[in-house]
């Protein structure tokens, strides 16, 4: 029963990113989700909830896909697991590697597997250093990333990330991890024109490289669109400048496509939209639409050749690197994305529809900006539009709005005073209308609560 699950959850389950005291004292306890179909979750009380977040930005092909369950079942009967260590391979990771080389941006052609986005970014932290060691430049060992970035929870990934609550008091960031400001025009742009702001944000990376010393910097890593940081969509001027700077100083450019990959933005990978040609690219989430854990780091031909030609063992890997069942599910998932033309639909149909409906919300008295690309979007809650003023309370307005959304059975996330969304790529235009309509109601309620 719901009551039993809630009690056991409180007593025995330590959930991620949770205030345990608050949960223990809350009357309601956790909401227990028991089923899902398409974009709709059902909780243990039979209530249907519109999932505007695709789980955690991952259920790209939507819920209830029998094909994915069947792919796992078939593979589990044949060979549920075998490792890929020590010159062994199994067919699914090899077939998937070939497929990934085909669908990822030009130049990326080898993959190293893990099970989570965190693991893939941790792999980058070691692999980039291994590469530079092989190139005879072991002193190239520093990393640059951005504040508000989220690259995972493990210690190196959290060091690459720019979320201070994950770092302060935990000895993070580890030595050698440096941060610059994100290209977040709405909060940091001031009076600057967006494109000029984008160039200045990129310039911070150049300044940081020069401060550390170009011969010491291994890589710059960034999400094409910072997701958990608040769906920060950079100005068009930003990524070309970042790429130019990385090339100029011989710094590897790493794109974290854990959220953006597999169709989210209306491109198979957001790097294509922004014109990024990464030396390494990390991916997870949408690779299996969250049906089973899997992640990977794609590397360029140049890095691959160096690894192959230089020799020397790469002392790194996970028991589940190249897990055959996970890879079989990924292949079936990519097949669905391609067969149903989900990427084109997001780019030409549902993405533009979401943008249009969000643009209507921009007129709302407490909305300061809306932005989206494909099916990832955000709106900023403000007290006053001009001059732009936030509500007091540092994130309180966002939390209030999020809680109203949850009570109105639509899952959206609040990041500070921004509301972010990333529904399954299979969402229909009618379901987008429903999502936006519920969000509007919740913005009205938030405004009322805040006396606006
Ligand atoms: N990178 C990005 C951009 C993410 O959004 C996330 C998770 O939200 C991660 C990495 C970490 O992935 P995981 O939670 O699978 O470790």
UniProtKB/TrEMBL annotation:
<keyword id="KW-0663">Pyridoxal phosphate</keyword>
<dbReference type="InterPro" id="IPR015422">
    <property type="entry name" value="PyrdxlP-dep_Trfase_small"/>
</dbReference>
<keyword id="KW-0808">Transferase</keyword>
<dbReference type="GO" id="GO:0005829">
    <property type="term" value="C:cytosol"/>
</dbReference>
<dbReference type="InterPro" id="IPR015421">
    <property type="entry name" value="PyrdxlP-dep_Trfase_major"/>
</dbReference>
<dbReference type="InterPro" id="IPR005814">
    <property type="entry name" value="Aminotrans_3"/>
</dbReference>
<dbReference type="GO" id="GO:0008483">
    <property type="term" value="F:transaminase activity"/>
</dbReference>
<dbReference type="Pfam" id="PF00202">
    <property type="entry name" value="Aminotran_3"/>
</dbReference>
<dbReference type="InterPro" id="IPR015424">
    <property type="entry name" value="PyrdxlP-dep_Trfase"/>
</dbReference>
<dbReference type="InterPro" id="IPR049704">
    <property type="entry name" value="Aminotrans_3_PPA_site"/>
</dbReference>
<dbReference type="GO" id="GO:0030170">
    <property type="term" value="F:pyridoxal phosphate binding"/>
</dbReference>
<keyword id="KW-0032">Aminotransferase</keyword>
<protein>
    <submittedName>
        <fullName>Putrescine aminotransferase</fullName>
    </submittedName>
</protein>
<comment type="similarity">
    <text>Belongs to the class-III pyridoxal-phosphate-dependent aminotransferase family.</text>
</comment>
């Amino acid at each position: 029963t719901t009551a039993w699950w809630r009690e056991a959850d409180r007593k025995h389950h330590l959930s991620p990113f949770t205030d345990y005291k608050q949960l223990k004292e809350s009357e309601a306890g956790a909401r227990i989700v028991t089923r899902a179909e398409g974009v709709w979750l059902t909780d243990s009380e039979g209530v249907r909830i519109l999932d505007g977040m695709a789980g955690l930005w991952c259920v790209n092909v939507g819920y209830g896909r029998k094909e994915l369950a069947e792919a796992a079942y078939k593979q589990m009967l044949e060979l549920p697991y075998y490792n890929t260590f020590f010159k062994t391979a199994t067919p699914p990771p090899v077939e998937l590697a070939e497929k990934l080389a085909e669908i990822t941006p030009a130049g990326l052609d080898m993959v190293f597997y893990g099970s989570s986005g965190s693991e893939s970014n941790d792999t980058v932290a070691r692999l980039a250093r291994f590469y530079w060691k092989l190139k005879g430049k072991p002193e190239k060992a520093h990393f640059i990333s951005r504040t508000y970035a989220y690259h995972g929870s493990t210690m190196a990934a959290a060091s690459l990330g720019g979320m201070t609550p994950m770092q302060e008091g935990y000895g993070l960031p580890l030595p050698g991890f440096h941060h610059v400001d994100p290209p977040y025009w709405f909060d940091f742009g001031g009076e600057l024109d967006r494109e000029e702001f984008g160039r200045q944000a990129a310039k911070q990376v150049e300044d940081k490289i020069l401060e550390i010393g170009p011969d010491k910097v291994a890589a710059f890593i960034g999400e094409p669109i910072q997701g958990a940081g608040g769906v920060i969509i950079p100005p068009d001027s930003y990524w070309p400048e970042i790429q130019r700077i990385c090339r100029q100083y011989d710094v590897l450019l790493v794109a974290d496509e854990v959220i953006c990959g597999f169709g989210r933005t209306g491109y198979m990978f957001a790097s294509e939209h922004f014109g990024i040609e990464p030396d390494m690219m990390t991916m997870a989430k949408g690779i299996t639409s969250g049906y089973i854990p899997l992640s990977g780091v794609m590397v360029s031909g140049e890095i691959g050749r160096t690894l192959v030609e230089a020799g020397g063992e790469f002392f790194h890997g996970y028991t589940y690197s190249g897990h055959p069942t996970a890879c079989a599910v990924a292949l079936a998932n990519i097949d669905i994305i391609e067969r149903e033309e989900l990427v084109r639909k997001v780019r030409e149909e549902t993405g533009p529809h979401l943008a249009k409906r969000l643009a209507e919300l921009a007129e709302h008295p407490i909305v300061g900006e809306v932005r989206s690309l494909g099916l990832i979007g955000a709106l900023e809650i403000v007290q006053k539009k001009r001059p732009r003023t936030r509500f007091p309370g540092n994130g309180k307005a966002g939390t209030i709005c999020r809680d109203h959304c949850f009570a109105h059975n639509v899952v959206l996330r609040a990041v500070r005073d921004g509301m972010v969304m990333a529904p399954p790529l299979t969402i229909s235009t009618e379901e987008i209308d429903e999502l936006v309509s519920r969000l509007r109601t919740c913005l009205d309620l938030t405004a009322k609560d805040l006396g606006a």
